[in-house]
Amino acid sequence: MSVEPKSSDTLSQLKELMMGDERRELDDLRARLENLDEESVDRLALDLAPALRRRREMGEAEFDELVAALQAGTESAIQRSVSQDKAKLSKALFPIMGPAIRNYVMDLFRGMVEELNETIRNTTSAERLKWRAQARMAGKSYSEYVLLKTRSFRVEEVYLMQRDTGLLLLHAARNPEEEADGEADLVSGMFTAIRSFVRDSFASEDAGDDDASELDSFSFGEREVIIEAGPSMVIAAVAHGVPPASARDELKGILEDLHAEMADRLDHFSGDMTLLESSRPTLRRALIENRTTAEETEKGGGLWRAWLALGIIGAVAAVIAFFGMREQSRWNRFEAAVRSEPGVAVTSVENDGWWRHRTMRGLRDPLAVDPASRLAEFGIDAEKASFDFAPMVSMAPEFVAMREAKEVEGQKQILAALGALRSDLGKTLTPDDLVTLGGQIDENLNALRSETQAAETRRAQMEAESLKMREAMILSQFGAIDGLEISFSEDGSEARFSGALEAEDFEKVQAQVKPLAALMKVDTSGLNDDSGARMTQLLSEIGAVSVLFQDGSLNQDDNDRVVEMVGMLRQLDSLAAKVGRRFRFEVVAHPLIGANREANRVVEKNRAEQIRDRLLEAGFAEDRISMSLSEDPNRAGDGVSLKALAGQGGEEAPER
What confidence tens digit (pLDDT) does each residue in 557-566 have? Predict the structure, then answer.
């Protein structure tokens, strides 16, 4: 029995025959479209590296475009990584950044060492000179040698521990037998316990796991333990002595090298210590030592050269000082002798260099001894001294007597000539003899008259010049003193001093006019000591100064007034001490403007205390300063003023 196929099956078979291949291709394309994203990622993962290499081969310009396109995304990724977990990036950069930072710091400190060399280059103590000589012999800079001499130390043991667990990874000691000692684990555990205790007990709450909160060193006896922590390991070095900063830098570098060597082994560490033994030589580099060796000490010999140089310099200085002092002593004795000579007034001595040449200036009577003639007497070379003396007529008795004797001698010569003339007149003479005798008489009289007139002219000129020089000398010596008036008599034989002077100037003038009495008469009856009048003026000025406190406190103007007060008080003390008097001072606080007296008195007292404290700071004794609160309404708003009272309380500064 035959069965007729259904029409739907027939149609399906027909479609399969006609369009089967096309349908399967469409299904395959649809499946590929649906899986396109996943396949693209896989394909990109396989082709990215070859594509980047290909881009690099295309040239710098093409690759720079790629770098510029990736820059923003890369920077954002780094910023996000740092903000989320900075430890990862720190661990990755630790082996790179550590040496870079250390090199920068080393360059910085190298510059500081050079500056230190310049600063201490001129040190001259015996010990430093010895070190400088030894540094040169050893071929080292002076600053480096100073560090060697002052920072001797030795690292005895080094422990390398895991940072998080405190597990001892490696131990190195100067004595290899001690490395096998079982106490190393115990010591590392104690180190870890101490670090944890310090961090938990003293670190701030917001410090976190930062290195700043870690214990970096501690001391016991003559030993110091230096601790340096890295991202995953900690190194602890036990040193004898005081390690310099360079020791810590070396430990940091060694720790960085250990991180680079042991990073992979620590990531897969299962507790097998033998896997870490290959890094022990690196750890042993931490057994550093800084100590002056015997060889360096021997090279430091040759100090005799420094002492020889110092000896030569000292000998030359001693010789120069000896001859200088001898020359100065000779000149001092010569100058004293010249000043003591009558008829000589020395006004100044000028030095041209140190005891090389001197010029003496002043006044000298022509009859006085020439100072140049006495140089050889004191052993002074004539080429090392010159003299500039103006002429004067001295009133010294010996010179007056010499001039009178010269005049008497002239008169005797005239009388002798007249006697000879009288004798000739008594003889019997012819007219021709009388004519000849008359001519001789006229000639002799004219000669005597001319000589007398010339002598009188020279004498008058010398006296006039001497008077001018004496007046100029006196005016130049005393002209700068305030209040001093100087006048001279008509004939110039007397100098008159007058005026009201301060005590210091009064004493100075009285002392300096005494030597003038050897040259001329001196009248000081017109001089007065002006200390009393000046003290009265100061008392009035002190009472007139007030500190107003306009801003409620001491402003700049008030400070200036306080400084002015202190200056006047010191002047008053100086004048009072010269006349045997002593003042005390009263700080007076005047009333404030306002009706609330009780509250105002508190402010007034506080202001008075401020002024009193300023006076105490200026050096005035506390027992000389008192305070008072004034109730005078006429002085309301005047702030604070001072009264200067006599030591016995009898005199006070006048009010304004």
Answer: 888 888 888 8
